[in-house]
Amino acid sequence: KTKSRTTTLTGNGGELHQTAGKNHPELTTNQGVVIADDQNSLKASVRGPTLLEDFILREKITHFDHERIPERVVHARGTGAHGYFELTHSLEKYTTAKILTETGRQTPVFTRISTVAGGSGSVDTPRDVRGFAVKFYTSEGNWDLVGNNIPVFFIQDAIKFPDLVHAVKMEPDRGFPQAATAHDTFWDFISLTPEAMHMVMWIMSDRTLPRSLRMIEGFGVHSYRLINADGHASFVKFHWRPKAGLQSTIWDETVKIAGADPDFHRRDFFDAIAAGDFPEWELAVQLFTQEEADQFPFDHLDATKLIPEELVPLTFIGRMVLDRWPDNFFAETEQVAFCPSHIVPGIDFSNDPLLQGRLFSYLDTQLSRLGSANFHQIPVNAPRCPFANNQRDGHMQMTQATGRVAYEPNSLDKDAPREQAVKGFKSMAEPVAGDKGRIRPESFADHYSQARQFYASQNETEQAHIIAALIFELSKVEHPHISEAMVGHMLHINEELARRVAVGLGIKVLPVAPPVLVEVQDLPVSPALQLIGKM
Ligand code: HEM
């Protein structure tokens, strides 16, 4: 037998028992009953059956059986960290939100960076968009900026999101590929969704092969509104810029890394924080008015379009530093619930139809993912400012209701929470007129201008990487009509691109390009438009 102060092989079967004492508290059940033997279940005799009576065994196994919760329907694999945001430049002229006006104050944040398509156990390095979600625990309530590392999106209307995700996720009959875009259903959907062409150029670029999660940009994607003390609204787009610079791996490195270390990005993030080399980003905004937006050669409510910085320059307003790894991965990184509808007074939504759908989707999915209407009470989700209302009960209620009043108005409780008209959240009083219908603005039909612009902005090496990615991805597609349709779209983006991809795929005769419904003039823009943003 091994001799040690707290460890002895004392069991009848020679098993190891560690005894409580010194710094080791007593092991108990969830009801606080001290456990004498955690190695053996209760048996009818030394070689007899296990007894149903064994409440210690049943409690332990039952809890274990329910350890897993549903993973996120998208963005299931992620890495998160705590930190702070510090405002360096006040936007007082544009908003009343304290998080954007009080310079110098450090506001706590929790940030989660994720892949989109793979499950929670998938590898860190597929060719995929990275989610970039930040929860600011502001003094006026939680503000979640739920973005991606690409400034545009695949689709213009939220009603297409389930189709997009069903096309990109593993195919339902075979259960693969688990985290890759190189398969028929993805390219089939994309080839029939020309609005995705701009985003496709970005995802085929090295942007989707980050060198480190510390080296990606983040974008709020949609326009939001800022409302100032006079009630005037401006539009705003949010951008995160990594202090470590934007860096990518090349495809061959990515593939090797995926094999050598599926946790490559998570480990890098963990190691960097442990070493005090804290991931850091600058926050910048693009600000513009409705009148200025009316002059854009595209609609800023169309999430497949970005606003070029030549048109509306960036204003840098603050920095975010992530300096603390969560104490518990499940409790924080898994249970954190970001939601684009979490905004604070002084910030408001735009009418982007993709954003409008997102405002519904996140809370809805989190009710089933986290299993209770009270998931906002989980510490990582709870606001860090005072909060009080008359909501009550429900699964997993953790707050203790006191008194007899849980409604308002009331005259019975002198301490009950009440409205505050001056500082409370108010939506912008936007006039709305027009015919109701399942409709889109005409300019949404310009699917190629910005795809062309993005491809043209890439240098020769970057363009070669995009071509190689398209050849690799489309070569995995079994149905030739899908790859041919993709080459047809490419003819509208760049003829040389289309030809080189066609050669790479062995397509002998170039397909006919699909019809173009709306052609918007290419940027660079007129000098008048370049004044925008200098408000
Ligand atoms: C999750 C970004 C579009 C539904 C996420 C996450 C990010 C994100 C970053 C992960 C959050 C986390 O770390 O927990 C975006 C961006 C979009 C977009 C930037 C477009 C610009 C949409 C749309 C829908 C949607 C259109 C639905 C209509 C969801 C859902 C989740 C999610 C259901 C899982 C949330 C959870 O389980 O907590 N999205 N998304 N997303 N997104 Fe989106």
TrEMBL record:
Cofactor: heme
Keywords: Heme, Hydrogen peroxide, Iron, Metal-binding, Oxidoreductase, Peroxidase
Cleavable signal peptide: none
Similarity comment: Belongs to the catalase family. HPII subfamily.
Function description: Decomposes hydrogen peroxide into water and oxygen; serves to protect cells from the toxic effects of hydrogen peroxide.
Residues annotated as domain Catalase core: 28-416
Keyword set includes Heme: yes
Root EC class: oxidoreductase
Region (Disordered): 6-25
GO molecular function, one term: catalase activity
Protein EC: 1.11.1.6
Protein name: Catalase
Record's catalysed reaction(s): 2 H2O2 = O2 + 2 H2O
